Batch of 2 targets.
Target 1
Amino acid sequence: MPGDIKSKVLIIEDDPGICTFLKTTVGAAGYDAIVTGSGSHALNIIASHCPDCILLDLGLPDMDGCEIIRSVRKWTQTPIVVISARSTEEDKAGALDLGADDYITKPFGAVELLARIRAALRHTHTTAEDGELALTGSYRVGELCVDYKKRRVFLRGQDVHLTPNEFRIVALLGRHAGQVMTYKALLRELWGPSVSMDNKILRVHMANIRRKLEQNPNQPRYIFTEVGVGYRMAERSEDEPTD
Amino acid sequence: MEQPKYRRFFRNGLLFLLIMGAAVALSMALSGINDDNNPFAMAVFILAVALVARVSDGYLWGIAASLLGTFCVNYIFTYPFWAFDVTYPGYPLTVAVMLIVSILISALTTQIKRQEQLRFEIEREKIRANLLRAIAHDIRTPLASILGASSALREQKLSPNDQTELIDGIHRDAQWLVRVTENLLSITRFTGGVALKKEDEVLEEIIGSAILKYRRRPACLPVEVDTPERILMVPMDGVLIEQVLINLFDNVSDHAAGASRIWLHISTEPGRVVLSVEDDGPGIPKDRLSRVLDGSLTDLHSQTDDRRNMGIGLSVCRSIIRAHGGDLSAGRSAHGGAALRFYLPYQEEEAYAG
């Protein structure tokens, strides 16, 4: 983002190779990169430098990455993007449930990394109070519009007739567009903390929603599945017009 | 490992009770015929002891059987009947014979089992060594090219064009290595004592995610899926089946020269859901069909492709599907190219309609 002050990105990663890659990429994109390989050092830096975004590798030598998320979330909402290996869906879901904002799976390219950082920064800059959602009472992406005032979802201007439960799911995903919502988080928000952990009902609702919203449920445009973790609502890309 | 130990104890105990009970019953039935000292009882119990020692694990059960056998012979089937008489002249001999029989047979059984175990381990080592050799071979070539390209970039003065070409090469090779390692990681999710983690997954979600990831590849083809109206909830490890689909799609774009499109057909048969990945490329030659899947064929489509082969990818697919209780087969597609069909066990449930 071209501004007077560079956004500060803290990179917490112990592998020197990945570190160099992250630092170079982030630096070249115009951010101010701060790098550390130690968890305890990272906590100090977060307190003293107040970075705008944190890239966190969960596997650190001196501290469990989840510990860092937990202690950071005690006092700040600074966006945290977790860098994780594939094959550890539970870890990803666990990190998100602890308060991480997003994750990126190793290996990844520069474009993908920068997209996640931009998305994470955007979420802090446009909170629910001053975002489009609060201004217009609706969330739009592509031909989809979630109207929070009328409690309806429109596709190409047509009401898609969701059931009340289906609307609540879409509304929730729309409010967190671009972010992965874990099954656990969705269930908790929709049916309260006492709901059983069986996410089958949620899956069936999602399949029905997909049939109503997506032209081709096998190649969705609006709601994506993160296998083993949860769902993600598509986010309006930056070049897409507002209306 | 507590559970199997318990189970083995119960299995051994059950067999012990069955065999010894049968021996008592048989001897009792026979003793009705001839009410004198029962000479056959001894024979029946020696047989019973031998059987227990053969079918149970370790020595303890056989020894217990021989002690119980001696006791039974003495107590029930030898004069005085229904009384224990240690002064009975043949008694020490009976004990000794039964003990020796049980120990001999237990020893033999244990030895045979140990040899089987050893053979099994040697076999497994061999498979492991072959797999390692195949992997090392698969990753050496791209590594060599990455090393060469990066050293050229570092040490030589190159034109910007040449530089870009080398960098693209490094990128391509690294992506290939990523694919190989993802496949290897997939296998570790369910081998080496790790059980497959099956959960009910909505099939279209897995397919959607696999297509999304495949479509990020630089040389991907459009994928056409025929979607069943019903929601299919299939028990599986979602990440692994996603990997299978990506491998099968990759296989088309890597090997089916001239293919323009991938079709994914989904159908249900009693007890299973069948997925078929098809293309309109040249297809797999008939003489190769059978060898395509086991990874032994390293020059699949050699006329159309360079040094790389997805032999490892397809054999990973097959291992994953077999671990799910399904199977993978190769054939011809109605679209003109190859068809790789696999099925997964699936029980239809009516409850998900609407």
Target 2
Amino acid sequence: MTDNRTIALVAGVLVLLTAATAVGQFLKRHPDRGLDPAAVRTFNSRLRGWWILCTVLAAAFWLGTTATVVLFGLVSFWALREFITLTPTRKGDHRALFWVFFAFTPLHYVLVGLDRYDVFSVFLPVYATLFVLARVAFAGDYKRFLERTAKIQAGLVVCVYCLSFAPALLALPLPGAGKGGGNFRLLFFLILLVQFADCMQYVWSRMLGQRLVAPSVSSNRTWEGLLGSATSTSLLAAALWWAAPPFQLWQATLAGFVVAVMGFAGGMTMSAIKRDRGVKDYGTLVVGHGGVLDRIDSMCFAAPVFYHITLLVTGIRP
Amino acid sequence: MLSPADTRDLPPPQRPKARVRSPFCRAAGLGLAAAARLLAGASARWIASQPDTCQRVYFANHTSHLDALVIWASLPQSVREVTRPVAAKDYWTSGLVRRWLAEEVFDAILIDRTDIKVHQSPVDLMLREAGNSCSLIVFPEGGRSVSGEIGEFKSGLYYLAKKRPDLELIPVHIDNLNRVLPRGEFLPVPLLSCISFGPPLWLERGEAKLDFLARARRAVMALKE
């Protein structure tokens, strides 16, 4: 893992984060610069989040593939927990939910860890769906049947299935890359693009935002933000194409573009669910923490598409 | 049931027997509290109220078998050491594990719901067991609510307050635990729950029983937001 490109990537990220932290602290100490103090606070708390994210990822990467898969599995589990907590379920769903949490979710990640793409790509969308439908029917409560099963299904697909495509990148046989290192770089490339796209969406929306995409769903996501985020993320991906092993320049740019658009779509989707449930973020139940789901919504939408684009443009077979 | 108007003074409360728990039971208690908090995703909120080891009665809405365990687990460890849940004897003595947990780990005060003797009212038993140092966790609805609504409070809380006016009564609201382990289920689903502790209240001088019980119930409901 200690090849030059990894070192360059890690060093680049560290320099960026350190510089941003210095700027953030400077702005905090000098509130007279005419900047919105709330925006500075948001920026600083975001930065803290990124430091934590980078530390945890570095530890997981250092420990290896299994540790990384387990880490993503735990994140999925917690996100699903938040999702189902805020979704009204009935008592008839209880047994189905038990199996969803304690059998399907862990088993899916075991399949991801064992690199069984042939099984895990259908395990949740087909078999878990059939199981949930049948188990809820067996429980004997038919009230709003389709609505209830659809909620559980949506939670499973978004929080578990989609997110698991990120660690699944680690198992791809990349041409020319040594065992391991290249895959971790590819995963880190994805995470970096997702975070960057989120951030750019916010920045462009604030700077140029005029036309809201759907005012009733989100009051700060604009078409300008989407466009700006897609453009800047494509540029970043192009600039970093050397770090993502299987990609040529145009492929990396395309990946950046798609990740930004999908991340935006993920944020919109979660906003719609939150609006419907009347909460501001998924973390309101856990005092003092932002929800896990708030942090990974873009990732959930971007990961599977990034995975399949990688397969498509490079001709790799899992 | 003994005559509820019985307000004779109790014999002076005795110090409870010093419970010397084995290191194993203490460790089990710590582990169980951590596991309960993790499994029930419990976050504790103190609203206009602070955790304290002074003698208190925590009274809560009752939605699940996990309620007493999770409230107990949400208290800081120093408070947990002096807090004893009041629980139903029939449930907590069936099975070796439950009995061991109730007796050795969280030192519950077990109330026999089927055999209430005239000279041995549950309130007297609770106060005797609490002595003058232990806090109690009680569920004044008397049983788990089926609908999820908070039922009318039984009078026990009133007599507790009347016999020991020095105790702080802390309302506690339990949110979402009925979805973690609903009535009639034995396998939990790990959703997130929230335990809210409110500001203490006391029985006002001359306050009628029904007024007090209604006020206490409103205090729990107010924590629901």
